[in-house]
Amino acid sequence: NLSPVCLGSLRRAATQSVLFFFVLDTTALRSWIVHLIFRLGKTQGGLRGPGLFIINPLLDVIRIVDLRIETVKLQPQDMMTKDSVTIRVDGIVYTKVVSPEQAVLEIKNYKYASKMFSATSLRAVVGF
């Protein structure tokens, strides 16, 4: 049997741990970041924009999408033009996420995909 003093300290410890658990679950968002919350693999309530919201860390997975314009430098590549001249071409790509839900749900890694697509388009333009 536990003494009343021991039971009181256990209750205080349990209350403090529950309070600590909820303090860790609040998240503040910046205006250029959007969160997409998945609970057990399904989206919960669509996109969460700027503000404060509560998540369940045991069941929820958060995907973060930055809505600002991002610059990506393409690596220099040796290419051959249509008149058989070899040139070295590099480039800079500006990308901006317009539909964050589609960027997360339909593409595994949208940043890598946009970089590879722009490199392929650059090769196609130089080759013609």
Give keywords.
7 strands; disordered N terminus; 35% helix; 3 helices; alpha+beta; two-stranded antiparallel ribbon; 128 residues
Model description:
- 35% of the residues lie in helices and 38% in strands.
- By secondary structure, it is α+β, with helices and mostly antiparallel strands.
- The longest helix has 21 residues, at 4-24.
- The radius of gyration is 25 Å and the shape is elongated.
- Mean pLDDT is 78; it is low at 1-8 and 13-23.
Give a short synopsis of this structure.
This protein has 128 residues and is α+β, with helices and mostly antiparallel strands. Helices cover 35% and strands 38% of the residues. It has a 3-stranded antiparallel sheet.
Based on secondary structure, the structural category is: alpha+beta
Radius of gyration: 25 Å
Tell me how many strands there are. Answer: 7
Gross morphology is elongated
- Strand-residue fraction? 35-45%
State the end-to-end distance.
86 Å
- Fraction in helix: 25-40%
Task: Identify the strand order in the major beta sheet.
Answer: 3-2-5
The poorly predicted ranges are: 1-8, 13-23
Largest sheet: 3 strands, antiparallel
Q: Order of SSEs, N→C?
A: HEEEEEEEHH
Overall pLDDT level:
78
- Give the helix tally: 3
